[in-house]
Amino acid sequence: MSDSFLEVTAPFDGAKIARLPRLNAAEMEAALAAAYGLYRNRDGWLSKARRIEILRAAAKIVAGRAEELALQAAREGGKPLIDSRVEIARAIDGIEVCIETLRTDAGTVIPMGVNAASSGHLAFTQYEPIGVVAAVSAFNHPFNLIVHQVAPAVAAGCPVLVKPASATPLSCIALVEILHEAGLPKAWAQVVIPETNQLATKMVTDKRVAFFSFIGSGAVGWSLRAQLAPGTRCALEHGGAAPVIVAADADLAANLPRLAKGGFYHAGQVCVSVQRIYAHASIAEGVAAELGRLGNAMKVGDPAQAATEIGPLINHGECDRVHEWVQEAVAGGAKLISGGAKISASCYQPTVLFNPPDDAKVSKSEIFGPVICVYPYTDIDEAIARANSLPVSFQAAVFTRDIDTALRVYNRIDATAVMVNDHTAFRVDWMPFAGARESGHGVGGIPYTIHDMQTEKMMVIRSGEI
To answer: What pLDDT does residue 329 have?
Structure first.
């Protein structure tokens, strides 16, 4: 057994939470071999009925431990307890979406008998598990992201190895243990915490892995994709720099609180967090000022406290980086409307910048911190062009009372989803959720993930009775 350990600490105050053993090369190989052996033994596959039973039982267990799980997620990941409670509720719903998908999506009938060649034939498709799933996850939604990667694998009938983010492994372990408690044999879902990144890469790129699920940075995701074994499919979810266009006719009183929440929620550590707001010049300074006021009113601090609205950055280095980016923008000419300072080694003030330079890091790279940038525009097409100027493309938003303005933005902005009068971080777990260009590959969302983790297998029957 490995003599290496992962020390888990709370990002808010550095308190030690857990000490977990890491796996060495032999242990990693044993985990992968066990998973692959399960897949190759078709007689041992879990029936759909059994998978549904397990998922139902797991959802019930999570519901019974919701407060405990929310507090654990808040402590290890830094997301405030009020939002972590929502995360656990979403996770329960996500497991139920897996069940609904299994009960309603069973393949298709292929048209036959439509010409001489197809006469006397019947054809239909059914789904089979694709094989071993290797999942690598992120820290920012430590329980629900694991649900999005592991529960679909269980639903699809795939053995799964999941590597949680090193900062937030406890929520992952909790979910997998709950699945085991619900009746899933242990080898069907295994948490792996390797000694080195090289071991993790070796697992992901092994030819026995059929599907790779990744949530994290673009640099890591694209690098791993390039190393996958021939035939391995994948889904990559990276980040963006979400653009919002606020037209002159927007209902500011109703919607600026939504934008503030979308930008400052979880200290901005969300891949579709509101980052770049292009507001019409007639309202832009007022938009920035009100967002600053809303941010100043938010309580920043201990995520385990029910009153906290914004928690810490995941580590001190991230807090330092965000501050450096803000200082660079201000030095380059941005007007600091609010915030702009560290509250502690781990917490940063909700910050609003007005009109930072286009070449500043806050304008061209994902901030992943509690910072919103507001830029004035005079022509809607100019705003759209600026929104489209980056190599990332994920969710976007437009705020307006005019349907033609909403449709113009929808038709011209580079995004995989466009929210009208809601912030860019809106999501429900059954909708498609995907980054384009450098923001990702493939489509997330639980039904879509289940589909990706299966192969569609066709049977063609020839009979004179057809």
So the answer is: 98
